[in-house]
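Lab notebook, design round three. We kept the backbone fixed and only want residue identities now. Task for the bench partner: fill in a sequence for the structure below.
Input structure tokens:
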């Protein structure tokens, strides 16, 4: 697949995840715990044919030694890490959490979706595989 088709496919997946999140937000509104939104998003994305892993374990390593610390990523949808929130507003700490998951897994794409405010918030991020830097995806 050439780069343009690959990029368009990835952007389409971002849009589909955001669309499903909008459906869930419209139905349930703010005020539920994060796991409730997570369950609904997982169900709808799987029904749409996406590969979804919920609460995927992320072990920690020091060089080649696995540590006794493990993190859980909310959702991994078609290779995109999706960090869900149910807070009034997202902060830099939430962004750093996603960025750390992306760095630790060497995952190229991630997103944050916040259900906790009256208006759904969704931000898309891309990690440069050469430099490791992560930046918000800007749509033209």
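Proposed sequence:
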């Amino acid at each position: 697949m050439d780069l343009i088709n690959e990029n368009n496919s990835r952007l389409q997946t971002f849009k589909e995840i955001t669309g499903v999140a909008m459906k869930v937000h419209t139905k349930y509104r703010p005020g539920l715990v994060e796991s409730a939104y997570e369950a609904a998003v997982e169900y709808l994305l799987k029904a749409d044919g996406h590969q979804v892993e919920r609460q995927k374990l992320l072990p920690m390593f020091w060089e080649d030694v696995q540590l006794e610390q493990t993190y859980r990523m909310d959702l991994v949808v078609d290779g995109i890490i999706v960090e869900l929130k149910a807070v009034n507003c997202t902060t830099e700490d939430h962004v750093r959490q996603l960025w750390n998951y992306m760095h630790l897994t060497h995952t190229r794409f991630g997103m944050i979706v916040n259900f906790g405010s009256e208006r759904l918030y969704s931000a898309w991020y891309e990690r440069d595989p050469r430099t490791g830097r992560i930046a918000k995806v800007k749509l033209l």
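Keep this in mind before ordering anything: The chain has a mean pLDDT of 93.
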